[in-house]
Amino acid sequence: MLIGETIRVALGALRANKLRSLLTMLGIVIGVAAVIAVVALGRGAQKAVNDRISALGTTLLTVNPGQAQTGGVRTGGGGARLLIEDADKLREMGQVLLAVQPEMSSNLQVQYANKNTNTSVVGATANYPLVRNYEVAFGRFFTTAEDATQQRVAIVGPAVVENLGLQSPDAILNELIRIRGIQFTVVGVFKSKGQANAFNNPDDQVIIPINTARFRVMGTNRLRSISVLAPNEAQIPETMAEIQKILRRQHRLRQGKDDDFQIRNQADFLNTLGETTQVFGMLLAGIAAVSLLVGGIGIMNIMLVSVTERTREIGIRKALGATKLNILFQFLIEAVVLCLLGGALGVGVGAGGAILFTKFLGWNTEVGLSSIFLAFGFSAIVGVVFGVYPARRASGLDPITALRYE
Known about the structure:
By secondary structure, the protein is an alpha+beta fold. The chain contains 13 helices and twelve strands. The protein has two domains: 3-52 and 271-404, no CATH class; 60-265, no CATH class. Strands 4-5-10-7-9-8 form a six-stranded mixed β-barrel. A two-stranded antiparallel sheet has the order 2-3. Helix 2 (18-56) runs antiparallel to helix 12, helix 9 packs across helix 11 (324-361) and helix 11 packs antiparallel against helix 12. 35% of the residues are buried.
């Protein structure tokens, strides 16, 4: 079998029908492009989630108030509470707790000059930047002494500055803002962390001393949460057990009664979200792969039409000595070449689309080599699988019958 000659004849047949070849490839192009773009979106979303959660620190534990329960049945009319006294007890009795940081918060109106914005006002302790992994870009954070003496100082996020109509974040430094009619001096502006999702923007908040919040602004000792740092990841289970032991004693929960609080492990949260995003990305990629299947069926259909149109040509080649294997190989090459060219174009379109998503829509995308090889390899397999039947049909034609075909 003259392999070189067979390949030349197959490529010549494709060049002779450029428009048909292009339209045949279109299904593969769309399918591969969809796979590349969707997988890039999934990988980008997973990386963004990982980066944002990792930015909080994988040793961070969050204690939230929960519904009091007994034997799985809710008891009491309202939810359980976390109080400042709970945080004080953790700080006092904790042996492996690296840091304890209580928070109380409320959505309040913040005024500056003739502008105002509704934002989350958070009462926190002086170790807030350490525990929550925030950086102050301009100015400073408040001190423990300022918290103890209920000073009216505030640190704002960059989104708050933007919402108040200021062009530069440092323009609000040492300026006066009003929270519930009370004047606060802005002593610092946080470095941007980026918006995690549509419902939670860590840049859109104002931090004030927790004692100032408790006695001057919010008038309550109820906490939204207590953040705790474990010494390291290996000691997270020990830290969680200690938190549970201290809070159960503080809340006077009898043995057998369920906790009225929840302890969330940031590392577990990271793993769960990562797995969820990965499964979601695979689901989208699977949906996109259906278009590859449709493209393969389209190639088989066109190749069958091509076999019918070229019946006399096949008969002449067989009469001149072409073997069944020559004909089979020729049509199989045509199908595979169409799929590989379509795959190459699809990779370019998909990668370009992912870049455009990032540039114009601000979506996180990441084109990985694995997805390129997967889509490209799958397109080659499609060419082989869906090209076999038309090729076998062509190679099985009787030369005498083929020569008589009109």
